[in-house]
Every structure is written in C-alpha cells, then in structure tokens.
Design goal:
Oligomer: single chain
Largest sheet: 9 strands, mixed
Radius of gyration: 22 Å
Strand content: 25-35%
Distance between the termini: 14 Å
Number of strands: 23
Length: 421
C-alpha cells in the first residue's frame, strides 16, 4: 500500500479549531433561518467548507443543514460521508476540556474527536493529499458533511437529496474497521401512560437522547431526593454502559416504592419486552432504555432498539405492545431507520477490505453493526473505519478520544481507499 505524506501538525491545528465549535445536536445556540440546526452546527459546517475552499476545492452550503466539498472531474462521483454534530457532554470526569482538543499521552481528547469531526477532517486532508500528489482521479470525490446525524432524524440528508447528486459509491468513516456491510435497523419508541390520581406521585428524570445510555438519573418521592450515576455509552452497544435510569428504578423498587414506571423499567430489556430476536448477518437485537420522565400526570420512557436486518419492524413492535399492556402503557414509533445491507462480494466492499488488509495485516471478514451511519442514506454505501479493532471505543462517552497512532494509520487507509475507488 502506498504511503502518503501527512501534514499532522497542521491537521491537528485545524481539527482543534473544529472541536472548539460547540455543535451539540439540539443544544448549540440560536436556531435561525440561516442556521436551522443551531448556530454551532452552522459554524462547524462553514468552518469545514471554508477550509475546503482554502485547499482549492469546490464547496456548497445547503441552507445550513449540510454541505459538500468536491475535487476532481468525471461523470461519476465517490462519496465520503461524515457529520459535524456531536452528542451532549456530561462535564464530570473529563481529563481535559471537552470542547478544546487536548493531547494527553498520545491521545487527542474532546467531544467529536472520533465521532465524527476527527474522521471528517482526516477525509478532507486525504483529499488534499490526493490533489497535492498530482493524482488525476477519473471520478469526482465529494466529502458530504451533515449536521443532524446524532438525533437520528437526518434532516441534513433529506435536504441534500432534494437538490444534490447521489454518489456512485460511498463510505462513511464513522464506525470501526473492517468494512461494515450490514447495519441494524434503528427504532426509537415512546412508551407512555396517563397516571390516575390514586397513584402516589413521584417525579423522575433521566437521559436526553435516544442513542446514549443515560449516565445520570434523579427522582423525588414523598419529599425525599434520590440520584443514581452510571456510565454513558453508545446505544448500539448498551452493554458497554451502566444505565443510571434502570439502576435508580431498581433502587426505588428495593425501598418498597410502587409505581407503574418502576414496573415498566423492570421489564425494559430484550427478555422483558419479548424481543430476543437475532439473525446470521447482523446478530442480536439490542434494547437501550434511554429517556425517562415522570410527573404526577404522566409517565414516559423512550427506548432505542437496534433490529437485525432480516427482522420485520412489526414483529418487534407487536411483541413490545403485548409486554407493556399489563402496565397500562402504549407504544408510539417515534422514528425508524431501515437497515443497511450490501453484499460482501460487491466491488465496493472488496476494494475497501483489500485496502484495510494491506494496511493492517488483518484479514478478518466484513462485519455487521448496530450503529447507524450516513451509509444508510445512499445505495452502494458502507461504513469503513475510522477506529481499529484494538482502539478503545469512546464515542458518546466521557473522555472521548482518538490516539495519534490510529489517526496516522487511518489517514493512509482513507487516502488509498479514495484513490482506489
């Protein structure tokens, strides 16, 4: 595999500038006609487009929802799909300021370093290196940058598709190596019920986003305050977190406190919901109880489920409705993103697998994931990197970081992948 020069010092400087822009999805400043996803997201998109223009590339901002940076000529276009919005930050426990970009012991710390500002910036630098090296690709290369990935609604991709061209093939450096050929369906459900006056009132609050394991939970019962602390993690792998909502509910039940919400929490799992489904391409269904809200009038739980690629949505929702009915709750589908599945012997998957094997020496086959990347937005697109199997997965967590060694290795893979495609 060809080795390309990497302007690491300048890359880190430019990435730090991007990390310093607070572009937390749903909490990044005023929403305006120019910045429909918030001021921070607009600034992050503009920062990247300005840098792309400085590198000599064509750029376009799409109404503050997304933008693209393009180089090369040709009828066909290779897409690299990334996003500049991030999940929220619990400031407790960070080794460094989460919106700065501090290097400690060979690792770059900050919200968005690995998900997905770091890989987005690395892709831009890969394009710059291809241009500087004199390679004349026979296709256009377009870095497509979205601003609404983390909430799951993907308003940015909807806006892109209204007026812009879809890539002939694409990859998203928003996951792990090797190639992810299958991504489970993503389902967000709302479980709600009205509370009768005879139910003794409690207040309960935990979680803000469906796709994060809640790290904090609080409740008040008969004037007494309770709290629980857990550990945040990505909802695609809830077992890697420690769900504070479920912990606090178990504690309250242990104190003899009775409430429909606490009983619902008791069954909020694969087994309790009756959804122990799995398939060969993508593995087991996962459940993450994400958001809890209770007051005197209403109880609500929001959950994130990752559904195997061959399991119908209706099979899942029917099972959950049956499980929650005895507790008086009803189910509403808040959001569903269908699964991604690209054949493993496709030219796209085979090309990227070859590049990865040459770079790493790892000959393991393509994998499936519970994650949801922009690869779902287009036909013939997959997730590819940017973390290696031995990298700690810290996105969506306190102390999100990306090692400088992994950054260097991934740069070479992305440059070679783009050049090969």
């Amino acid at each position: 595999m060809k080795q390309y020069p990497f302007a690491e010092e300048q890359f880190l400087q430019d990435l730090r500038g991007l990390l310093q822009i607070r572009s937390v999805n749903g909490d990044n400043g005023p929403v305006t006609p120019e910045a429909p996803l918030g001021e921070g997201v607009y600034k992050a998109l503009d920062y990247m487009l300005t840098l792309g223009k400085k590198f000599g590339f064509r750029t376009k901002m799409l109404d503050g929802y997304c933008g693209w940076i393009e180089m090369g000529e040709g009828e066909h276009m290779v897409g690299v799909l990334a996003h500049v919005d991030t999940v929220t930050v619990n400031p407790e426990g960070w080794l460094a300021e989460p919106f700065d970009g501090t290097i400690i012991d060979g690792k770059l710390y900050g919200r968005g370093t690995s998900d997905d500002k770091g890989p987005a910036m690395l892709a831009l630098y890969a394009m710059k290196e291809i241009a500087d090296s004199g390679i004349k690709p026979d296709k256009r290369i377009r870095l497509i940058l979205g601003g609404d990935e983390e909430a799951g609604d993907w308003q940015c991709m909807r806006r892109y598709k209204q007026t812009e061209e879809s890539p002939s093939c694409a990859f998203s450096p928003d996951g792990e190596y090797p190639v992810t050929f299958a991504e489970k369906g993503i389902l967000h459900i709302d479980l709600e019920r009205t509370l009768d006056p005879e139910i003794h009132p409690i207040t309960f609050e935990s979680g803000k986003m469906y796709n994060v394991v809640p790290a904090l939970a609080s409740a008040q019962v008969k004037g007494v305050s309770y709290e629980a602390t857990g550990r945040a993690a990505h909802a695609m792998e809830p077992e890697k977190g420690d769900n504070a909502m479920l912990k606090l509910c178990a504690e309250l039940r242990g104190k003899g406190i009775a409430h429909p919400f606490l009983e619902l929490a008791k069954i909020a799992s694969r087994e309790g919901f009756g959804v122990c489904f799995s398939d060969e391409p993508s593995g087991e269904l996962t459940v993450n109880p994400s958001i809890g809200r209770v007051d005197a009038k209403k109880a609500y739980m929001g959950c994130d489920l990752r559904i195997p690629v061959t399991i119908p949505l209706e099979q899942v929702t029917t099972a959950i409705e049956k499980a929650i009915a005895p507790f008086g709750f009803t189910l509403t589908v808040n959001y569903f993103k269908p699964p991604l599945y690209v054949e493993q012997d496709s030219p796209l998957v085979q090309t990227l697998q070859r590049i990865y094997a040459e770079a790493s020496g790892d000959t393991c086959p393509p994998v499936s994931s519970g994650g949801g990347t922009y690869a779902r937005a287009f036909p013939n697109a997959v997730a590819f990197g940017a973390l290696f199997p031995d990298d700690p997965v810290t996105y969506h967590q306190t102390n999100e970081c990306w090692s400088l060694d992994s950054i260097r290795r991934t740069f070479q893979i992305i440059v070679n992948a783009i050049a090969s495609l």
